[in-house]
C-alpha cells in the first residue's frame, strides 16, 4: 500500500506524465515492481496509460477529490461572496484550499480580459508561494507554520522559503487581515485574505490577482477591503464540521481586520 501511495505522490504539480523508469527513479522502487503496481492502479482508475510515454493520474481521483472539495465547502461558500470583486479589467479571482503545507487552487474566475497567469485550477503549490496560501498560513500559530513548512520540504524535497521574509509577511497579514503578494509569478500581484471556519481555523484563501501595473495604491486599498469583506462573508457560509477527537491546529491570535481608514497599503517590491 505504501509503495502504491508513493507512485501517486510522485506526480507533482509540474509533471503530467511519468514513464516507468522515471517513477522508479523518483520513488526508489524497482522498475519491475513499479510496472506491476502502475498496471494495478490503472486497472482501478487511479492511473491511466499514455501510449508511448508512460502513466498519468487517473479519472477516479477526480471523483475522490470532488468529494473532499464538497465536504469542506470552500468553493460553495465563496461563490456567494464573489460578485463585485472584479472591478478592474484584467483582474481575476482565485480560491485555494490549505492542505498541510500546500495550497490547492479550486476555483478561478475572470472577466472578458484575461492576462496569462499560472494559477490553473487543480494546481498544487507550496502555500508560502502565493497570496491565497500566505493568507491561510497567517491564521495559524507560527510554530504550526514552521512545522508544516519543515515537513513539506523534508518529505517532498521542496526548497525552503526565506523564513525571515515569510515571517514578516505573515506578521503583517495578521495585523491587517490581508496579504499583498508578488512572489508567485513575475509581474503579477495578488491581494488575498484567509477564509476561516467557525473556530478560526484557516480553510484556505481568496484572492484578487492580475498584472502588477493594475494595482495602483487606490486599487490596492479598495481591493483589500473587498477581499477581506468577501472572505468574512464566505466564513458565514462554510458548513459546520463536527468536532473530532484529534486536536485541531492552533489558529494564530489575529486582531480583527482594521477599517479602510486605518489601513496603510504598501506595494511590496518585486521579487
Overview of the molecule:
The chain has helices at residues 2-9, 20-27, 31-43, 60-72, 74-79, 131-137, 142-156, 163-176, 217-237, and strands spanning 47-50, 54-57, 92-99, 102-110, 124-126, 179-181, 188-196, 202-211. The protein is globular and about 60 Å long. The chain has a 6-stranded antiparallel beta sheet, sandwiched between helices. The chain is α+β, with helices and mostly antiparallel strands and 271 residues long. It is built from 9 helices and 8 strands. Helix 2 crosses helix 3 (31-43). The chain folds into 2 domains: 2-58, Winged helix-like DNA-binding domain superfamily/Winged helix DNA-binding domain (Arc Repressor Mutant, subunit A, Orthogonal Bundle); 65-262, GAF domain (Beta-Lactamase), CATH 3.30.450.40. The model is unreliable at 258-271 (pLDDT under 50). GO terms for molecular function: DNA binding; DNA-binding transcription factor activity. Keywords: DNA-binding, Transcription, Transcription regulation.
Biggest sheet, open or closed, and with what strands and sense? 6 strands, antiparallel
Strand order of the largest sheet: 5-4-3-8-7-6
- The count of strands amounts to 8
Give the fraction of residues assigned to helices. Answer: 25-40%
Based on the structure, what is the oligomeric state of the protein chains?
A: single chain
What is the global morphology? globular
β-strand percent reads 15-25%
* Helix-strand makeup class: alpha+beta
Distance between the termini: 41 Å
Mean pLDDT: 84
Task: Name the CATH homologous superfamily of the largest domain.
Answer: GAF domain
**Poorly predicted parts:** 258-271
CATH top level label of the largest domain: Alpha Beta
CATH fold group of the largest domain: Beta-Lactamase
Amino acid at each position: 500500500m505504501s509503495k502504491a501511495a508513493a507512485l501517486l505522490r510522485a506526480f507533482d504539480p509540474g509533471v503530467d506524465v511519468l514513464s516507468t523508469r522515471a517513477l522508479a527513479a523518483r520513488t526508489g522502487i524497482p522498475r519491475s515492481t513499479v510496472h506491476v503496481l502502475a498496471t494495478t492502479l490503472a486497472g482501478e482508475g487511479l492511473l491511466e496509460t499514455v501510449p508511448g510515454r508512460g502513466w498519468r493520474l487517473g479519472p477516479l481521483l477526480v471523483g475522490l477529490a470532488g468529494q473532499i472539495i464538497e465536504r469542506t465547502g470552500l468553493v460553495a461558500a465563496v461563490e456567494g461572496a464573489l460578485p463585485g470583486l472584479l472591478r478592474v479589467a484584467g483582474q481575476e479571482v482565485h480560491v485555494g484550499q490549505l492542505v498541510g503545507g500546500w495550497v490547492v487552487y479550486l476555483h478561478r474566475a475572470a472577466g472578458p480580459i484575461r492576462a496569462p497567469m499560472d494559477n490553473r485550477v487543480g494546481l498544487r503549490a507550496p502555500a508560502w508561494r502565493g497570496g491565497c496560501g500566505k493568507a491561510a498560513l497567517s491564521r495559524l500559530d507560527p510554530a504550526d507554520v514552521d512545522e508544516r513548512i519543515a515537513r513539506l520540504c523534508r518529505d517532498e524535497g521542496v526548497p525552503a522559503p526565506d523564513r525571515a521574509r515569510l515571517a514578516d509577511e505573515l506578521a503583517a497579514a495578521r495585523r491587517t487581515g490581508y496579504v499583498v503578494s508578488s512572489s508567485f509569478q513575475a509581474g503579477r500581484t495578488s491581494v488575498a485574505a484567509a477564509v476561516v471556519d467557525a473556530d478560526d481555523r484557516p480553510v484556505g484563501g481568496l484572492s484578487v490577482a492580475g498584472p502588477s501595473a493594475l494595482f495602483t495604491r487606490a486599487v490596492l486599498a479598495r481591493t483589500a477591503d473587498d477581499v477581506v469583506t468577501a472572505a468574512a462573508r464566505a466564513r458565514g457560509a462554510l458548513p459546520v464540521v463536527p468536532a473530532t477527537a484529534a486536536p485541531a491546529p492552533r489558529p494564530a491570535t489575529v486582531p480583527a481586520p482594521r477599517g479602510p481608514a486605518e489601513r496603510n497599503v504598501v506595494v511590496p517590491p518585486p521579487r
